[in-house]
Structures are given as structure tokens and as C-alpha cells.
Amino acid sequence: MIKDIKGLHHVTSMAADASENNAFFTNVLGLRRVKKTVNFDAPEVYHLYYGDEIGTPGSVMTYFPFGQMPSGRRGTGEVGITEFAVPTGALTYWQDRLTAAGVAGLEKSEAFGEARLSFDGPDGDSFALVESDARGRTPWTGGDVPEEYGILGFRGARFRLNDAAATGELLNFMGYQKADTSGDLTRYVIEGGNAADTIDIEAIPSAKSATQGAGSVHHIAFAVEDRARQLEVRKALLDTGYQVTPVIDRDYFWAIYFRTPGGILFEVATNEPGFDRDEDTAHLGQALKLPTRYEPYRNQIEGLLPAIGN
To answer: Which ranges in the chain belong to alpha helices (H)?
Structure first.
């Protein structure tokens, strides 16, 4: 069993419009844009990161806004819902705020004893706010969301799969333990990590497979402390038969990727070096930061990228 996974690191999705995406996460959800950079494989496309004040692992939602990208189709083989933690008692505030902002899909419910508010993102993304203990986390307070209601980071994520068994075994191998079941949902929790420590699997045997597009999660990343532990995790996965990429330098973390039995792309990312490696904390996310290999083409790249506001 792997013992180095510390919960979630980040979740990366796709969008159709960069400006709309930026406005939703900063103005509506009140998160901080902690990095404005580009897709390493398509530098004409932004890679935008949103989170708490410093982009703490377990708080960061990231997006590739591929302009005018067709919408994805919901189904199985994907991260179906990305779940944010908010303080206990905050859901009434959020229901009023999201209603005033014209956000679609609002629905209050409960799962595993936790009150939750589901809602849709601009591209039909599926999200939920879940009332949770703070566990030492504090929200970004640079916007207009009061601290007592602010998003603390991730609570976890819900996978939608035709067959839950194989992915459940993988999560067990990664250090997650089966904690509870409720109908078609099975909850897995990792001990001793960060507060973004929960994965729920929803088994939907007869549903069609998802098709990726705007509003789809591209991959979900799990956190390890450093590169040494990442290499240990990589070896353990390879020894178990998973096809794992070499370590890739993503400037703000190192990453490895592999595909799960259920079809979801997993990443294992390091907590080091962090988003302040090329910007001081006070100015995170303000300037366009480019990978070194693209810096000679800055003028051309900036000419291709749309304006997205502060």
C-alpha cells in the first residue's frame, strides 16, 4: 500500500471562455487567482489556477479555457462532481449569493450526514459546496465573500463509474480506506493528510460514458510532499502494473500521470515548490507567467491570449 498520498492537490477542468471562467471563480465564488500561465502543450491557451491565498495543495481549481470548445457530455468514467468545503452554517449565504448571480442547478441535499449545495459552473460543470470543519484552513479574504462563509478548499470529489470495484481497489492501494456506503455511493477517506481527503464513488452500471469537453474535469491530482516520495509512489504504481508517465516539471509542482481502471486520469503532484516560486505572495496570479521554453515567444503568445481582467 502507498503511504505517501496526502489527499487532493488540485482538480483541472476545461472551459470555453477564459474571461467568463475567471469572473466566475474570482467574482462569484470568491477564490483567488493564484497563477496565470499557459497550457504547456498549447501555449495559445491559458492555464488558470484559483485557490486560497497561496494556492495551498488541496485548495486549487485549475482550468484550460479552450476558446469556443464544445460542451462535454456527462456520464461515467469521469470526476462527476468537484466538492468545495465551506464553514458549517454557510449554505444559506451561498444559496442567496449564487441565486443573485444567476447560477443554475442549485439544489440543497445531504450525503453522509453533510449538508451540501449543488450548482453548475458556466460550462455546466458540476460542483457542490459541503459544510465542513475548517481543520486549520482559512479562506481567501481579498474578495467580497466574508471570511465566515468563504470557501476553505476542497472537501473532495465524486467519481461516476460503471463499475466501482476496480477503482475502489486502486484507492485502497493509494492509502484511502472505505468509510461508508449510502445507496449507490461509497465513501473513501485518507487519514493523516490534508483536509481534502474524501473521494466518493457513485456506481451507475447502465449509464453511458462521458465525453470530454467544456465543463469536464480533465484530471484530478493527488498530493505528495516532495519529489522523493513521488518517485516512491511512481515505483509502487509501476510495480502494480499501471502505465505511469515519467516525472514532468510543471514549474509549480512535479507531476506524474496514469489512467485508472474506470477511465479517469489521475495525477500525483508534489507540494513543492509552490506558486510563489516566481511571484511574491502579494502579487500571485497578476502577471502572465510563461514556461522558460516559451519566454522567447512572449509577444506572440500575449497577442493570442484574450484579456480576462484582474
So the answer is: 18-23, 91-100, 165-173, 227-239, 298-304
DSSP 207: P
Domains of the chain: 8-304 (3.10.180.10)
Reduced to 3 states (helix: H, G, I; strand: E, B; else coil), residue 15 is strand
CA dist 14 and 21 (Å) reads: 10
Backbone phi, psi, residue 213, to 5°: 180, -165
Nearest to 222 by CA among 170, 179, 178: 170
Q: Strands, E, within the chain: which ranges?
A: 8-15, 32-39, 42-51, 60-65, 78-87, 107-111, 114-120, 126-132, 153-161, 176-182, 185-190, 198-203, 217-224, 248-249, 253-259, 265-273
What DSSP character marks residue 26? I
Write down how long the chain is.
Answer: 310
The C-alpha atoms of residue 181 and residue 112 are separated, in whole angstroms, by 8
The strand ranges marked E within 17-70 are 32-39, 42-51, 60-65
For 101-155, write each residue's pLDDT tens digit. Answer: 999 999 999 999 999 999 999 999 999 999 999 999 999 999 999 999 999 999 9
pTM reported for the whole predicted model: 0.97
If you write DSSP's letter for every residue of 230-258 in order, what string do you get?
HHHHHHHHHHTT---PPPEE-SSEEEEEE
